[in-house]
Amino acid sequence: MSALLSLRNLWVEYGDKIIIENLSLDIEEGAFVSVVGPSGAGKSSFLRLILGQEAPARGEIRLDDTPLVPECGPDRGVVFQRYSVFPHLSALRNVMFGAECEEAPFSARLFGAARRKARDDAAEMLHAVGLGASMDSYPAQMSGGMQQRLAIAQALIKRPRILLLDEPFGALDPGIRADMHELITRLWRDYSLTIIMVTHDIREAFTLGTRVLALDKRRHDPHAPHRYGATVVYDIPLDKERSKVVYHSERITIDEVSNN
Ligand SMILES: Nc1ncnc2c1ncn2[C@@H]1O[C@H](COP(=O)(O)OP(=O)(O)OP(=O)(O)O)[C@@H](O)[C@H]1O
C-alpha cells in the first residue's frame, strides 16, 4: 500500500538561502507526526509545503500517489499558534463561514435548507470541541484555550483528512495545554485524521505523536549560515515505552531519546 503523503528530494529555497535540503519521507494514513527542531530549521516551511501554500524549489510531493498541486485543498486543514478566528463573528458563524465560502464563494451566504445544514454541522462541531455552550460568544469573550478550540473546529468543519498544526498550544498555560492534548487525541481518533504537528515542546511531541521527526542541518558553514538546509536528522517511531521515558524525564534531548 502506498503512503498517504510521499515527499521526495524536496528543496525549499528563498533567494540564495537554502532552508530545506533534499528531504524525503513517507507519511502513512492515520499517523500523528510530531515535528521538532531548532528555531529557523524550516518547520513552518515544511508545513506550508504540505498545505500547498508554497511549492518546493525542487522535488515532488504526492498525496494518494497523485502530485500535489501548490494550492490549499479541503483535504488539508491547518491551525496556527495565534488565533486565526474572525473577531467580528460569533463562534457559530466562525465555523459556518467555511461552509458558506465553499458553497457560495461569491456571497459567502447560504439560505434555506443549505443554511440550516451548515448551522447544524457547525453546532455539532462546536460540541465536539467542547464549545457547545459558547456558540453565540465572540472571540473577545473567550479564553485563549477556547479560541484555539474554535480554530480547530473551523479547520475540521471541512472534514480534512490531514490536519496540520503549527505550535497550536504554544501560547497556552500548562493546565489548558493538558486539556487540549486530550481534545486533539480524541479528535484524531474520532475523525480518523492524519496529524502533522510542529512543536517546540519535546514532551508534547513524544506524548502525542506516533512518530517524531527532527529537522536540522547536517552540515554547517559558519561563514554562510544559509548555504546548507535542514533535513530529517531523526525519524523516531514511538511506542509506549519510549513515550513513557520522555514523559517522566525532567529534561531530555532528542539525542538521548533516539539512543534509548
Ligand atoms: N517567505 C520567506 N522569505 C524569505 N525567508 C523566509 C520566508 N519564510 C521563511 N523564511 C526563512 O526560512 C527560515 C525557516 O523559517 P521557518 O519559519 O520555516 O522556521 P521554523 O523552524 O518554523 O522556525 P520557528 O521554530 O522559529 O518558528 C528562516 O530563516 C526564515 O527567516
From TrEMBL:
Keyword terms of this UniProt record: ATP-binding, Nucleotide-binding, Transport
Signal peptide: none
InterPro entries, sorted: AAA+_ATPase, ABC_SmlMolc_Importer, ABC_transporter-like_ATP-bd, ABC_transporter-like_CS, P-loop_NTPase
UniProt keyword ATP-binding present: yes
GO terms of molecular function: ATP binding
PROSITE patterns assigned to the protein according to its UniProt record, in alphabetical order: ABC_TRANSPORTER_1, ABC_TRANSPORTER_2
A family per Pfam: ABC_tran
Domain ABC transporter: 5-242
Entry-linked PANTHER family: SPERMIDINE/PUTRESCINE IMPORT ATP-BINDING PROTEIN POTA, SPERMIDINE_PUTRESCINE IMPORT ATP-BINDING PROTEIN POTA
Name of the molecule in the record: ABC transporter ATP-binding protein
Organism name: Novosphingobium organovorum
